[in-house]
Specification:
alpha+beta; 2 domains; about 15% helix; Sporulation protein
Length: about 260
C-alpha cells in the first residue's frame, strides 16, 4: 500500500464515499424507514469503524429579541460492525429503523433529513444528507382530519424551542397554525395553534392555543394586551377516536 495513498486518504483525497438510498422518502412517524447505504472504496483500504444514521431537523430559538436557527438530532442509529473497505470496492449495507413517533411532520418551515456519517480511522469522515417527507402518525392524522371537519385549515407549521413546561425528550416542539375558513368557528376565532407535547402510538398530549377574534372595544383591548388567547392542555387516546369530533368541538367552544 502506497504511503502517499494513505496520506491522501487521511485528508479526504481519494477516500471512501458514501451514498444513502431510501426505499421511500415518504415515511410516517412511528413506522419503519428502510434503505441501503452504498459505500465506494477510495484509493487505499480503509477501516470503517461505524456507520450511523441521524434523523435531523432545525428549530427556531429566540434570545434577546433575535431569532436563531438551531439543529437538533431526533434519533441516531448505528447500522454496522467495523469492517475494511478495499480500494474501489462497492459495498451495500441494508438498514431498517423505526422513525420516532415524536418526529416533526414535514410542513411549512419544518424540514427533516437523514444525515449519514462514516467514522473512518485516521481520515476525514465522509457524509451524506437525504431529505425525507414525514407524514403524521395515525392519531395526529385523525386530529388533523377532525379539525378539517370543524372548518379549520392548516396554514403553517414551525419547530420552536420548547419552554421548560413544554419540553420533553426533544429541545423543541412543533406548532401547527390553523385558521377557521368555514364552520362554527369562523368569525369567532382568529386562529387555533396546536402543539403536540408528547406523541406515542396510543396517546398524544397536546396544547390548544385558542385565539379569540376581537369583538368591540373590550375585545380590542384584550387583543392589545394578548389576553384574548387561552391555552388548553388535553390528551387524546385511541379510545377517544369515535367521540373525537365532539371532544374537540366542545373544548374549542368553551373558550371561543
Amino acid at each position: 500500500m502506497s504511503f502517499f495513498n494513505k496520506v491522501f486518504a487521511s485528508v479526504g483525497i481519494g477516500a471512501a464515499k458514501v451514498d444513502t438510498r431510501l426505499h421511500d422518502v415518504n415515511v410516517r412517524a412511528g413506522e419503519d424507514v428502510q434503505g441501503i447505504v452504498a459505500i465506494k472504496g477510495g484509493k487505499t483500504e480503509q477501516e470503517i469503524a461505524e456507520i450511523y444514521l441521524s434523523v435531523m431537523t432545525n428549530y427556531v430559538k429566540e434570545s434577546d429579541d433575535k431569532k436563531y436557527t438551531q439543529t437538533a438530532v431526533i434519533s441516531k442509529v448505528k447500522i454496522n460492525e467495523p469492517f475494511v473497505i478495499m480500494p474501489d470496492e462497492h459495498k451495500e449495507i441494508p438498514f431498517r429503523f423505526v422513525l420516532p413517533s415524536d418526529t416533526p411532520v414535514t410542513y411549512g418551515q419544518s424540514k427533516i433529513w437523514i444525515h449519514t456519517g462514516l467514522e473512518i480511522k485516521n481520515a476525514v469522515d465522509p457524509t451524506d444528507q437525504d431529505a425525507i417527507h414525514v407524514h403524521p402518525g395515525a392519531l395526529q392524522q385523525k386530529i388533523f382530519d377532525t379539525l378539517g371537519e370543524l372548518g379549520f385549515q392548516l396554514r403553517n407549521a414551525e419547530n420552536e424551542a420548547a419552554s421548560a413546561r413544554l419540553r420533553r425528550r426533544l429541545p423543541f416542539v412543533q406548532e401547527f397554525e390553523f385558521f377557521p375558513y368555514q364552520g362554527p368557528f369562523r368569525g369567532k376565532l382568529d386562529e387555533l395553534d396546536v402543539v403536540f407535547t408528547d406523541v406515542t402510538d396510543e396517546r398524544v398530549e397536546m396544547v390548544l392555543e385558542i385565539d379569540r377574534k376581537a369583538r368591540g372595544l373590550s375585545g380590542l383591548f384584550s387583543e392589545m394586551l394578548e389576553t384574548d388567547e387561552t391555552a388548553v392542555r388535553m390528551s387524546v387516546t385511541k379510545h377517544d377516536l369515535p367521540q373525537l369530533t365532539g371532544i374537540l368541538k366542545q373544548t374549542i367552544q368553551r373558550f371561543s
